[in-house]
Amino acid sequence: MKKAFTTHIVSFILGVAITLTTVYLISDTKAEPTPEPTPIVIEKEVVKEIPVEVVKEVIKEVEKKTDLEEVVANCKNSCVMIYAYKGDIINQGSGWVYNGYVITAKHVVDGYKKIEVYTDDTSNARTATIEYIDPKLDLAVLKASIMLPSLTLGDSNKLTEGEKLVTITSPKGAQNMVDECIYSGIVSTATEYYMALTDTLIQGGSSGGAVFNYNSELIGMAYVGYDGFAG
C-alpha cells in the first residue's frame, strides 16, 4: 500500500516536472512575428485635364447699306454743281463726270464767258472750258482740272415704268441733293424725246444733273429742271 502511494507520488512529481518544463520551453520560445499583409496598390489612371483654349469668334455685324445708300456711295462723288457767268447774269446748273470730262446741259453753259465747277471734295471752284456741244441733245462737254471717278453708263431702254430711280442734282444751288423718283415712261414729240420722272426733287438748277438706276448706272440727264424731265 505504501509502495503504491509512493509510486503515485513519484508519477505526480514527474508529471508536474514535465509540465513545468514544457511550459517553460513554450514560454521561453520567441514567437515569430506574424507578417503584415502586403498592401495591394491599384494604380488608378489619372486623366489629365488638358486646358482647352476657347476661341470666341467675334462676328461683327456689318449693316448692309440700303440700295439707295449704295448708289449714293458709288456715284455722288462724281456729281458736280456748275455756275456760269455772263456779265451780271449767273446761270446755275448740275453735271457729272465721265472719262475725265464734266457733262452738263448745253443751256446751262452755252454763251457764258466764265464757267465754274464745284465738287464734293473741296469748296474751291475749278474753272472749266467748253470742249464740245451737241445742240440736238442739249449736251455740253466741259474740261476742268479735276480728277474724279468716271460714272458708268447704263441703258435707259431697259427701264420699266414705275421703276425707282435716283437723281443727284443741285436744285436752286443746293449742291448734290439726293432724291428717289419714279420712271414714268418716255415722252416723245416731233422735236423732243425724253424720260418723264415723277415724285422728284428736280427743280431749277437741276439741269444737267445725273439720273441713276439702282445698279449705280447713269441712265439719263436732267433736261428741264422745273418739270422733272430727263434726256
What does this structure look like?
This protein has 231 residues and is an alpha+beta fold. Helices cover 17% and strands 35% of the residues. A 6-stranded antiparallel beta barrel has the order 1-2-3-6-5-4.
Layout of helices and strands, plus pairs?
Blueprint: H1 2-28, H2 67-75, E1 79-86, E2 89-98, E3 101-105, H3 106-109, E4 114-118, E5 126-134, E6 139-144, E7 152-153, E8 164-169, E9 177-188, E10 193-198, E11 210-212, E12 217-224, E13 229-230
Parallel strand pairs: 7-12
Antiparallel strand pairs: 1-2, 1-4, 2-3, 3-6, 4-5, 5-6, 8-9, 8-11, 9-10, 10-13, 11-12, 12-13
Q: Number of helical runs?
A: 3
The residue-averaged pLDDT reads: 81
Helix- and strand-based class? alpha+beta
DSSP strand count: 13
Strand order within the widest beta sheet = 1-2-3-6-5-4
Biggest sheet overview: 6 strands, antiparallel, barrel
Uncertain stretches:
23-28
Distance between the termini: 169 Å
Series of secondary-structure elements, N-terminal to C-terminal: HHEEEHEEEEEEEEEE
Q: What's the alpha carbon Rg, rounded to whole Å?
A: 54 Å
Helix fraction bin = 10-25%
* Shape, per Cα inertia axes: elongated
Estimated share of beta-strand residues: 35-45%
Short description:
The chain is of the alpha+beta class. It has helices spanning 2-28, 67-75, 106-109, and strands spanning 79-86, 89-98, 101-105, 114-118, 126-134, 139-144, 152-153, 164-169, 177-188, 193-198, 210-212, 217-224, 229-230.
